[in-house]
Amino acid sequence: MRPDDERTDSPNSPSPTGNSHAVTYRLQHTDTGCRARLGTLTTPHGEVALPTFMPVGTVGTVKGVTIDQVVATGAGIILGNTYHLALRPGADVVAQLGGLHTFSGWQGPILTDSGGFQVFSLAERVKITEQGARFQSHIDGARIDLTPEESIAIQEKLGSDIAMQLDHVIALPAEREAIADAMLRSARWAERCQQAARRQDQSIFAIVQGGLDADLRRESAERLVELDFAGYAIGGLSVGEEPAEMYRTIDDTIPHLPTDRPRYLMGVGRPEDLIEAVYRGVDMFDCVMPTRNGRNALAFTDAGPVRLRNECHKTDPAPLDADCPCPACRHSRGYLRHLFTSGEMLGPILLSIHNLTYYQRLMTAARQAIAADRYPEFRQQKLAGWQRG
Amino acid sequence: MRPDDERTDSPNSPSPTGNSHAVTYRLQHTDTGCRARLGTLTTPHGEVALPTFMPVGTVGTVKGVTIDQVVATGAGIILGNTYHLALRPGADVVAQLGGLHTFSGWQGPILTDSGGFQVFSLAERVKITEQGARFQSHIDGARIDLTPEESIAIQEKLGSDIAMQLDHVIALPAEREAIADAMLRSARWAERCQQAARRQDQSIFAIVQGGLDADLRRESAERLVELDFAGYAIGGLSVGEEPAEMYRTIDDTIPHLPTDRPRYLMGVGRPEDLIEAVYRGVDMFDCVMPTRNGRNALAFTDAGPVRLRNECHKTDPAPLDADCPCPACRHSRGYLRHLFTSGEMLGPILLSIHNLTYYQRLMTAARQAIAADRYPEFRQQKLAGWQRG
């Protein structure tokens, strides 16, 4: 079966009732050997083949990469950070400059997060109440209130295709009661986000919380599914837990999510995490790893990560990956090493592009494997390659 | 007359004897109203329309710009710095990685300077003797001897199309005797470079010195022309003198250079300097200004420089230049300002590309004006625009 075949007879096909969301998901095929699924996300700014990886465009720029170069990596949708954009340049400035699409120059779909994770990870003097989060900007110390309603108002000014609900993220490990409290608050905030939404050309994804507790994850999913969101994210992971715990929590959550909505694992992750999560039924990812690691001279390859500052690359004429079409792979490893040891900007630029291209090629290969019902073998093959490296 | 017309009947056409240099110049047309001239430089890596501006690729990279992006600016030839490349990664490493073309990925012509100017401007504890320059690396303090022969040996390892002679650059103002000494030493070094050269696929350009003294410039030019170089540079300018003094010195030098060889004004300069020098008969330029200023948020436009950090651009939806095809000009000034105020790499990247594109478009327009015998009017129009800004 080819990726763009439509299967209306599948037991996993969209509910015949459909939904009226601006952003919709069409399931095309589920691998016969696992939960990996092929689908299409339709948004006001075009369609995206799922599973997909979203490059992170923190303040309206994927760091060090022009929009043409982002397109050339194969990306179909990018992510913008509400927290960062609200601080600089401010949502009103973005709105005056035409919204995030015009501002950044990215004409495809955009997902904005809600700021919840950045409040948890970056802000200072954070106080969470039922009303929302009160905190100080990590840039200038300004006092800021971020409520579910305000998060949606900002995201509507940004004009993303997909807005994320504001959620209450807590550090793990934590007491079960604290995890349950945050999960229940997140569910109440999801409903407030839904009620605050005004734009017809934007859909909200809800975020399942509940730490590593299967029962709390199930309860969170059930509460949110009841509210009928356009998509569901799995949040609160990749915060320091073991990969195996993350994979188990995905397994505990996915069965409680509807098959006709996309599933987005937030802030994940390493190539192996993407492969494991797709295996378990996840459709969408975002992570700063390809760009952040690229800036630090680490390149992803099928043989595992390559650290380009190492002396062994000094006179190596081979490219990182002879099959990769990215501009970094038209140079030798020796040249790339030289850029980093000389402190040249082009090093971070080229490796950011290479790593983003690597992630996109990985997702393209995953979609092809699912379409051919050979995702489990594909997974084994990829994991073996990375472990060899 | 169109730029690519060939004029064999012109009094300025190449000498019928021609020359056996790997790099040759064909004069196509001299503007009827001034000394501005249109020509073609032929090198082992292709042809370049002159006048032209060479982006500076210090250590084998135009800072922050990929090779595809350099090509897209319209550049026809780039410059590499012998001093910088000799220190990092070392000429032998570049040679092992296939030479500077393969190393950098730039397949067009490359000119390498000799290191003379960097010894003057960057190195520490410099001691110049008749033998050469002895100095300490500005990076690790290593003791280095750079002789004319060594400079050519390094440039042969780099494999550039055009190697520059090692010259003795001195700070201005200086005593006439010191200027004369350095000029005569540079002429002797030119001959030593010529005698040291082994590669058939590389030509050497000599460098006219002599400070701001017309007689010394004439004497320098005559000595070098006698030796029959493939091209002649005007060196030792743009070291702090007034623009008018630089222009006068160009006027004092050009008549003593042969019409059938290209003339290269080293390290220059601002857009107005290029326009004034082309008016006086100069064919080639290099300068870090477009990239260095771009990294510092200064953009060149026909209305003069634009400082993008200024508050006035905060919500400006207009591009820098609606007619410019570069990727920066697909964004608003407000977005570009935001990139700089947020410390995002994309700001320096986009403005470097814009400024390089600006310089190339300026040279393209200059060539068209010369071809149409309207260079003097073109010059006036450009200068008026920049002064208005």
UniProtKB/TrEMBL annotation, chains A, B:
Keyword Zinc belongs to the record: yes
Region annotation (Disordered) ranges: 1-22
Pfam families for the chain: TGT (PF01702)
tRNA-guanine(15) transglycosylase-like domain: residues covered: 35-386
Comment on bound cofactor: Binds 1 zinc ion per subunit.
Superkingdom of the organism of origin: Bacteria
SUPFAM superfamilies referenced in this protein's UniProt entry, alphabetically: tRNA-guanine transglycosylase (SSF51713)
One of the GO biological process terms: tRNA queuosine(34) biosynthetic process
Family in the record: Belongs to the queuine tRNA-ribosyltransferase family.
Quaternary structure note: Homodimer. Within each dimer, one monomer is responsible for RNA recognition and catalysis, while the other monomer binds to the replacement base PreQ1.
Protein's name in the database: Queuine tRNA-ribosyltransferase
Gene: tgt
